[in-house]
Amino acid sequence: FQLLRQLRLGLASGEIVPHYQPLMDLRTGQIIGFEALARWQHPVDGLLLPAAFIDGLEEPDIAQALTGVMISGVIEDIAEWRKAGFATHVSVNVTAFDLRQPDFAEDLDAQLRAGGVESRQFTIEVTETTVLSRDTERISQTLSQLRQLGLSVSLDDFGTGFASLSHLLSLPADSLKIDRSFTRDVETNSKTRAIVRSVVTLAAALDLDVVAEGIETRAQLDALGALGCNIVQGYFVAEPMAGHDVMAFMRRST
Ligand code: G
Ligand code: G
Ligand code: MN
Ligand code: NA
After folding, report:
1. Helix axis angle, 104-114 to 136-148, nearest 10°
2. Which of the residues 49, 151, 186, 193 has an alpha carbon 20 to 30 A from that of 15?
3. In this protein, which residues make up the domain named EAL (predicted)?
4. Domain harbouring 247, CATH code
């Protein structure tokens, strides 16, 4: 309970900030956007990763406060980058608690407008566990609304839960992210390759983009490219970085 109390205080006092990990298009080598990942700048313990505070996401008020802080932080960073003449795409992770709120899509749209961010610059990432928790109908509806407003929806950690593919693929989405557990051994395990190949085929048939996560080596990148997966994210491209380091990263990478 000590942690949850500290987390609530930290959220309220701006200690939790977005860091950014780039997504790269393999075909062009271009950085096509970033995933925002929460980092806690703890006054005593230093920079904490979500693993240290992920339990807090079971608490509805904390989960929603985190999403709020992340969304407003991303909007501020996008405005900062815009001053330097740089526009990019950012995806933000949200929870089932957020997507059950009837006004989530409308509120987010209003916030984006107020911050001068275009809806097509924004993606909402949801895990399969999130979308298949209770109130799936309500959650699907919110995702549809977001897409109608011009935002994109990405299915994170794809293939790690127990949902049927048909169920998952009927969700309103624009892309799916193949989990690190598959990309890790894609060059060495032919079964993993078969799974990735079939996910890529299904995604193409349903007009979904595919992002492979957790790419750490050139060999993994080449193996995924050969399987038709064109967008990659992982330490091989770059580790998550603070918002103020993104401009310098972009200058180095072009
Ligand atoms: O780098 P990484 O340790 O940042 O993230 C670990 C896990 O925490 C991932 O599953 C990621 O989806 C989740 N996560 C990171 N940032 C956020 C966030 O802002 N909101 C939510 N809900 N989950 C996040
Ligand atoms: O939202 P999601 O579960 O996809 O969050 C991505 C998580 O994976 C974050 O914790 C991020 O820091 C981490 N991550 C990103 N790239 C790599 C990578 O190449 N290798 C490993 N081991 N972890 C990564
Ligand atoms: Mn994610
Ligand atoms: Na993932």
Report:
1. 30
2. 151
3. 1-254
4. 3.20.20.450
| Residue 18 dihedral angles phi and psi, to the nearest 5° | -80, 135
Alpha helices by DSSP H, 186-241 = 190-205, 218-226
The binding-site residues of ligand 1, defined as CB within 6 angstroms of any ligand atom, are: 37-38, 49-51, 54, 57, 66, 70, 93-95, 240
Ligand 2 pocket residue status of 235, Cβ below 6 Å:
yes
- Atom 12 (ligand 1) nearest CA: 93
Assigned token pair, 49? 């990763």
Cβ 120 vs Cβ 150: under 8 Å: yes
Q: What band does 131 get if pLDDT is binned at 50, 70 and 90?
A: confident
Average pLDDT rounded to a whole number, residues 79-85? 94
Count of structural domains within the chain: 1
Look up the pTM and report it.
Answer: 0.96
Tokens linked to 85: 């003449």
